[in-house]
Amino acid sequence: MTEALKLKIYEDEKAVVFISSHPSSLGHIEVFPKQDASEIQQLDSETFVHLMTVANYASSAVFETQQLQGTNIMVQSGKSADNPNAKLCVHIIPRKFDDGLNFQWETKKFEEADMQSIQEKISYHIIPSEEKEEKHEEHEKEGEKGNTEKSEERGKDHEKHEEKNVHDHKQGGREIKPDSYLLKTLRRIP
Amino acid sequence: MDLTPEQKKALEEQKANCVFCKIVKGEIPSKKVFEDEQVLAILDINPATKGHVLLLPKEHYPILPLIPREIFTHLFKITHTITEALAKAMLTTGATLFIANGQAAGQQSPHFLFHLVPREADDGLEKFALLSKEIPEEETKKLQAPLIRSMSFLLATHFKKYPAKWHHAKKEEPAQKLTVEQVVSLVNKNPQLKAFILEDPEEFKKLIPQNDQLKALFQHVSVDEVLLLLGVKQKKEKKSQNPETETDVNLDSIGDLL
Q1: What's the first-to-final CA gap in chain B, in angstroms?
Q2: How far, in whole angstroms, is CA A28 from its chain's centroid?
Q3: CA–CA separation, B232 vs B75, rounded Å?
Q4: Are the CB atoms for B217 and B186 separated by under 8 Å?
Q5: I need a surface site. Which of A34, A87, B23, B82 has the fewest CB within 10 A?
Q6: Measured between alpha carbons, how far is A164 from A154 in angstroms, rounded to an integer?
Q7: Which residues contact B254 (CB under 8 A, 6 or more apart)?
């Protein structure tokens, strides 16, 4: 193959679908958001739902068109070894038994305390969208009133929570080195 | 899902033995990170990495295409929220959302669920790498036309059922207003179609409104005029023998004519 094939099979205002030019199996489909995005959270919720809707239909379409026994839908969000250009893409991979493909990862075991700490961290950061809107409105109103006191209080609460998190780590008996945490935070800054 | 009584019974048995249904009910413990009436998110006890989350609808569905629209939408709205939370909590640069429909795809649980795995460039999770395979271009190209048709049909139906403010359906292009002579010439180029028309013109006439491509072809012309020019004699006798043999006409090729 000299030139990469550009076989488009669907397009609308939010999504575009191609047959992959680097297929892992015959009929490998790629769904891209029209919007230039690297990670799922850069899209708004509705656009992401639509992207997955299109991917779901594409997986059914490809299943019907070929004699398949299954499909994988894999979303590459952000930077990873298999997505070095950090381009958001939804892959649909046709599957058959004995096709030689195997995405099954090696499982790891972590200590109970680690798992608890992870559970707490993730649940803390999950803010349902309605609450997010309320908090955003609160913030805006405070900004207008010039009320700095509440923000300071909230800042203190946040600090307390961070301390609590660190405390939990130590309680778990495994010390998370503070500088690796800091390094990770720095890396997240775009 | 419309199931036969036997299928319903089989599904009930599957649910009774389903580990994830038990987790939903609280009969088996789990580390929940999010829960509401329709969906549940828990930490995977066999994680690929720290922060590996499983997302599942509380109701037992076998694969993604069988999930009702409302639950599907809600499930992915929550996924969007959790992905954001995961990035902040685990301080990672990316995530992989992994779905397996069917055992051949590596689906290990009969209860539909998917994986959200925090990712980094050097995390060593090579199993998610999508390696290219040598596939002849011809085979791939053959898939394009049927997939275009399927996608167009599926999404058109979808938007009719679930209209979106931001979506405007493309109007059918009446760009090609064909004359009677042009239609006749197109039919003459397709011997199979012509033979079918000549054999059973009445059957063909009935077929036109049922097939989008035929409809488009005859949109601006009189069918009878075309038939006349093709040399069809208006038979008032009974139709001859088996209409079924005529259905081997490849209507897909009409698309190529237009």
Answers
A1: 39
A2: 21
A3: 58
A4: yes
A5: A34
A6: 15
A7: B190, B193, B213, B214, B217
- Is the CB of B125 less than 8 angstroms away from the CB of A81? yes
Q: Is there a domain that residue B140 lies in?
A: no
Structural domain harbouring B18? 5-121
What residues of chain B, 89 to 108, have a C-beta less than 8 Å from chain A? 89-107
> Can you name the residues that pair with A94 across neighbouring β-strands?
A71
pTM here? 0.69
**ipTM, interface predicted TM-score of the complex:** 0.71
Q: CA A115 to CA B27: how far, in whole Å? A: 20
How far apart are alpha carbons B63 and B49 in whole angstroms? 24
Tell me how many degrees the CA angle B237-B240-B241 measures, rounded to the nearest 5. 150
How many C-alpha atoms does A50 have within 13 Å on its Cβ side? 25
Measure the CA–CA gap between A33 and A40, rounded to whole angstroms.
Answer: 10
Between the two ends of chain A, the Cα-to-Cα distance in Å is 37
| Cβ contact A27–B50 (<8 Å) | no
Helix pair A112-125, A148-171: axis angle to 10 deg: 160
- In which band, very low, low, confident or very high, does the pLDDT at B217 lie, cut at 50, 70 and 90? confident
d(CA B143, CA A67): 12
Asked if the model's pLDDT at residue A164 lies above 60, the reply is no
Query: Please, are residues A129 and A48 in contact by the beta-carbon 8 Å criterion?
Result: no
Fold for the domain defined by A7-95: HIT family, subunit A (3.30.428)
Judge if B116 and B10 occupy the same domain: yes
